[in-house]
Specification:
Blueprint: E1 4-15, E2 18-29, E3 33-37, H1 44-51, E4 59-64, E5 67-68, H2 73-78, E6 80-83, H3 95-105, H4 110-124, H5 139-151, E7 157-161, H6 169-184, E8 188-192, H7 196-202, E9 205-210, E10 213-219, H8 230-238
Parallel strand pairs: 3-8, 3-9, 6-7, 7-8
Antiparallel strand pairs: 1-2, 1-4, 4-5, 9-10
């Protein structure tokens, strides 16, 4: 049996009279590539912000690697990397300086950061621009630097919102191949995206959320694949 790396138990988030997430329960296992889908306003980003500790649930519990994100936050946050849909960098820092800064936040030693950075630099091909300032980066450059930062401390879980937003086809392929390879090495990926073809290509399991509630769950493996049908399923369920 696989170890549960992400557990949401009866998670609800209310903003005044608005219920953005309504009693969501799900489990993501070690090494699973999990797709979290839904139309705009369905509650995806709110759920992710609760998982990462940015929002406090009104009700329920968020566990990462067995740690409560809100009441045992440091061990939980050491367990995951997070890439938001709008990657943030310090504009006056170079990519290299930013990565050393992030490594320091996780109490990594200088040599550890350099060694890990060198390996990830090759994976994401950030070498040509890693010493430029963040203010000079395109969206795709930012995305690759932030992905590198999220994986720098060898997390067991990666939570990522729109992973190939703004990437050119070559960069998108690099990211997709790297994430798939990392899941085979044991990384658990929780991905929210609107790009259904990416989900069909990468995900082992999906959940569709609408109106803050889970309305559909499906597993994809070698014997059962979506084969281009996910779009019609999604549109039918969310119309």
């Amino acid at each position: 049996m696989y170890e549960a790396m992400i557990e949401l138990k009866n998670v609800t988030k209310r903003f005044g009279p608005l219920t953005a997430v309504d009693n969501v329960t799900l489990t993501v296992r070690a090494g699973e590539f999990f797709g979290f889908l839904g139309p705009n306003g369905a509650g995806k980003t709110t759920t992710i912000k609760m998982m990462t500790g940015l929002y406090q649930p009104t009700e329920g519990v968020c566990l990462i690697n067995g740690h409560n994100v809100h009441f045992n936050s440091l061990p939980a946050k050491r367990s995951f990397g997070y890439v938001p849909d709008q990657p943030y960098l310090y504009e006056k820092l170079s990519g290299r300086e930013f990565l050393y800064f992030v490594g320091g936040l996780f109490h990594m030693k200088h040599d550890q950061i350099r060694e890990k950075m060198d390996a990830l630099m090759d994976l994401f091909e950030i070498g040509p621009f890693v010493d430029k300032r963040g203010e000079e980066y395109s969206q795709g450059m930012r995305q690759r630097i932030v992905l590198t930062a999220a994986l720098l401390h060898d997390p067991s879980v990666l939570i990522i919102d729109e992973p190939i937003l703004g990437l050119d086809p070559r960069s998108a392929r690099l990211v997709k191949d790297t994430l798939k390879r990392k899941t085979k090495e044991g990384l658990t990926v929780f991905m929210s995206t609107h790009l259904l073809e990416i989900v069909e290509e990468l995900c082992d399991r999906i959940v569709i959320i609408k109106g803050g509630r889970i309305i559909h769950e499906a597993v994809q493996d070698e014997s059962k694949r979506f084969n281009g049908q996910l779009e019609s399923i999604f549109l039918e369920l969310t119309k």
